[in-house]
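re: that complex we talked abt at group meeting.

here r the seqs, copy pasted straight from the sheet so there may be weird spacing, ignore it
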Amino acid sequence: MSQHRHPGAPGRAGAVPALPDLPEATVARLPEYLRALHNLADAGHETVSSEGLSAAAGVNSAKLRKDLSHLGSYGTRGVGYDVALLIEQIEYVLGLTQRRAVALVGVGNLGHALAGYDGFASRGFRIAALLDADPSRVGEEINGLVVRHVDELPAVAAEESLAIGVIATPAAAAQKVADQLVAVGVTSILNFAPCVLSVPEGVDVRKVDLAIELQILSFHEHRKASLTALPATGGSALTALPGGLAATDTQEAIGT
Amino acid sequence: MSQHRHPGAPGRAGAVPALPDLPEATVARLPEYLRALHNLADAGHETVSSEGLSAAAGVNSAKLRKDLSHLGSYGTRGVGYDVALLIEQIEYVLGLTQRRAVALVGVGNLGHALAGYDGFASRGFRIAALLDADPSRVGEEINGLVVRHVDELPAVAAEESLAIGVIATPAAAAQKVADQLVAVGVTSILNFAPCVLSVPEGVDVRKVDLAIELQILSFHEHRKASLTALPATGGSALTALPGGLAATDTQEAIGT
DNA sequence: CGCGATTTGTGCACGTCTTCACAAGCGCCT
DNA sequence: AGGCGCTTGTGAAGACGTGCACAAATCGCG
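got the structure back, here u go
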């Protein structure tokens, strides 16, 4: 479509690409599209239809088109999307054109694994520092990086331009670490500790709790089990769908 | 209405408590409430108000009340919620009254950490088996469990009642593992591999991609940077957002 | 050069989630 | 006993996200 000047052609960043403020739901899906696009590119595809890409990303094709339309018009009707161009655009919007430095605090069980996780590096992030509060861990070398004490955070921030911090400490230590991160200018935090962090306005926190995911699955298991588990009795609840729980619900209330 | 006898008082489980089908958004928050409640219980609180609990869980109090109301009426007006009772109820609804066995496939970098993660055990799950396709890893002992070959999955399923599987393999292996899990009767999968899994209907998949979370944060960083970098121009986007640019679920206020 | 096949971009309707605001209910104090 | 303050539970409104269905746009072919 004509001179739809690419809002953020990587080379040119002067005139404020006016990042369209995307719906959160769309933002959360962009990384998924990006991964699928990289796969397609590696497989030699130069273009891809919304149908093809949506299948690779595991979403509905209409949703994908709407998501992409928020970035601007980068598709060609009758043809599809240019894979390389779309990769470029999504990476630009996500701010991945610069490799971002990440500080990882907490080199325990989980932190250790994160330090060695190559998915970070392969997707535009660089672990700039490993930190821990436990003196016995300081000095340990993991994946080519030496663990430093968490109190050295200001020094680390001075060396690198740190914007993102990852907290992989026990819950009890997380808030303090968050405060320290905020103090050195970190404005985005990925929190693996099972607790709520309180941070000043303007700081983003995302939380990943592995056990919560399992609990959600557990609910669905429980639910599935409760549905299939009763052909014997009256069979009421089974045949009755949404409407029919009145019967099971109100059964003799008074008395026992 | 009023005589809501507890749908699933743990002692009494005969007559199918008719699990109310909760909104997904609510289900996703229940584990968070549960964690906060356990903290409160440990701190000696016997009751808690929706205000107090919502602060501890990092959500809006109206939302919390609505969520809990879906479970039934377990609060007392003018007083609040009975902590112990509410814990019992949420655990029941989430299906945590029985300790669920989980099979963990892929004992690489991440899988290793998951195997040692005590957050699973402390929240009602038990890692029943560690599996890997790499023969050189089979036999290794981690956290008291011996790694077995993934092809032994049927044997494992025969020993235990497996409903949940965790995939922590490289993306290339994930689909095959998923198929194997489904084949032995697993109906819920937690997938850490960065890829889309295709599973038959009736099987639930939840995905956790650590790099995606970082990319979402990166977007917000990029956004924040692009906003603060130009007071000059139209200033449209900056002034546009009235109250909050904190679109995510960040929360304030723990207080006390 | 025009036509048909194909695929994007989007208006619209629908469902879900969030938030406000307040009546109903409960306990306590007088 | 009665009133008062506090807190839950919920109706209603609005914001948000989803999916359908189709017009607009493009390419390839005859």
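couple things i noticed - The radius of gyration of chain A is 24 Å. Chain A has eleven helices and ten strands.
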